[in-house]
Specification:
Elements lengths: L7 E5 L4 H12 L3 E5 L5 H8 L3 E3 L17 E5 L8 H8 L3 E4 H9 L3 E6 L4 H14 L4 E9 L4 E5 L4 E6 L13 E4 L7 H4 L2 H12 L7 E5 L7 E5 L5 E9 L2 E8 L2 E8 L4 H17 L3 H9 L9 E5 L4 E5 L4 H14 L5 E5 L4 H6 L1 H9 L3 E4 L15 H7 L5 E3 L5 H7 L4 E5 L8 H11 L1
Helix pairs in contact: 5-8, 5-9, 10-12, 14-15
Length: about 450
């Protein structure tokens, strides 16, 4: 399919973080863009402010007539929509051009230098770091992000079409639609077992992704993964190494050892060794592309992060409130490591909203172990997303497996009052569901109370 032939772009699930980046992209290149989503959010409001028409009822009659020109219309959908979706089924039955988001990314990137970021954790942060590095080094780049960049207040960085930076999503094997020139794999921990069944199948899919590289393409890996590539590691022997690591005023300062030489005093402002690892692999990809290390050092120092990735909502000398997207046990472990490194003597209260019944079921013991590390634990009910309830799988079941005596199952309406009762100096909200929509309310009310 030639995207140039499609003037009308209709997105079903337009409010999703990946879908909304596509909406911004097509609007920016002067396509006629509209879409449907189930609920209004800040993202849909931002899209509407760009002149994109969005409605929130699954109703064909809500769609502007121009989108019924079959030859000039492309329909893009998210796999999260139900099979009973009326609009989707209408377009399908009437033989419209219909593609998944990942297929569209494959088309957009095929005539560019594609830099694809894969991994069960770290994709969004690594993608946003790499997109920022390329942008600041003067590369003509478009980057599709899985979160809102603090530097650009957007999930799209657009400065040209020579290079495209994208997240390579392993969910439903979407990343196999890409044929990258540069690719990295940050991690291969078990996840999405509702799709893959077992970890071995997930790993096989990552190996298949690595084989999608174009001839002479370069694969970057975090050292220790069961796959061959240009290796990256923190204070361990690898092709690219972060060494001599120090923390100065909450900022990592480190030296970079590479096949092209050693470069000193890089600065990186995000806490946590997992984030430093993400920065290292992004630096390696940028250097191999041809960016000058001295320019990369300046670019990295100016990187501000991604919203809901260890985002400080309140930060004073004796009290902090941090929000993070962590929704897998390994991600929670990484967040905990970052907190203990930055605030080793402070009491930490975590409020966690589990995401998906299947993920909770598959990793209940690992979730319990990761949450046990905090001083206080408050659990919300499971956010179901695309799933129906599973018998016996609940937040109460997870709570029973947590050994920490300072634990409690609460409703969203109780979050502020529970925080106010606590003596913790660090408050954290974690999860990939709708807990992020509560952050501003929590921030305002605990600020008033304090």
């Amino acid at each position: 399919m030639n995207l140039d032939d499609k003037n009308n772009i209709y997105l079903i699930g337009i409010g999703g973080i990946g879908m909304s980046a596509l909406a911004r992209y097509f609007k920016a290149i002067n396509k006629n863009v509209a879409g449907y989503d189930r609920t209004a959010t800040q993202i849909t409001s931002d899209l509407e402010s760009l002149g994109i028409d969005i409605h929130f009822e699954d109703d064909i009659d809500k769609i502007d007539r121009e989108f019924f020109d079959r030859e000039s219309t492309l329909v893009i959908y998210t796999p999260a929509i139900p099979k009973t979706h009326n609009e989707f089924n209408y377009f399908k039955e009437h033989n419209y051009s219909i593609l998944k988001r990942s297929e569209v990314l494959g088309l957009i990137t095929q005539d560019t230098v594609c830099m694809a970021i894969a991994g069960t954790h770290g994709k969004t942060t690594t993608t946003s770091i790499l997109g920022h590095l390329m942008h600041e080094c003067g590369v003509e780049v478009t980057a599709f992000l899985g979160g809102i960049s603090e530097n650009y207040n957007s999930n799209l960085i657009q400065k040209g079409t020579v290079v495209t930076v994208v997240e390579a999503d392993e969910f439903d094997r979407s990343f196999l639609n890409l044929t990258p020139d540069f690719a990295c794999i940050t991690s291969m921990d078990a996840d999405h077992l509702d799709i893959y069944g077992e970890k071995q199948q997930l790993e096989a899919s990552f190996i298949e992704f690595s084989r999608k590289l174009k001839p002479n393409g370069k694969l970057f890996i975090n050292k220790g993964l069961p796959i061959h590539g240009i290796s990256c590691a923190i204070e361990s022997k690898a092709d690219y190494q972060a060494t001599n690591i120090k923390i100065e005023n909450g900022t990592y300062v480190f030296d970079l050892k590479s096949p092209h030489g050693r470069f000193e005093k890089f600065k990186f402002n995000l806490p946590g060794r997992h984030n430093l690892s993400n920065a290292l692999i992004a630096l390696a990809m940028a250097i191999e592309y041809g960016c000058a290390p001295y320019r990369l050092a300046s670019a990295l120092a100016s990187y501000k992060g991604v919203k809901r990735r260890f985002t400080y909502q309140i930060k004073t000398e004796d009290y902090v409130f941090i929000d993070d997207y962590a929704h897998h046990p390994e991600e929670i472990n990484a967040v905990h490591q970052a907190i203990r490194e930055m605030y080793p003597t402070w009491q930490v209260l975590v409020i966690f909203q589990p995401h998906l019944y299947s993920r909770t079921k598959d990793f209940v013991d690992e979730f319990a172990s990761s949450l046990d590390q905090f001083d206080e634990v408050l659990l919300l009910d499971i956010y179901p997303a695309r799933e129906l309830p599973m018998e016996g799988v609940s937040s109460d079941w997870l709570l029973g497996k947590i050994n920490n005596p300072n634990k409690k199952l609460i409703r969203k309406s109780e979050m502020v009052s529970e925080i106010q009762k606590s003596k913790a100096q660090v408050i954290m909200t974690l999860g990939a569901g709708d807990i992020g929509e509560e952050v501003e309310f929590i921030k305002e009310n605990i600020s008033i109370a304090s």
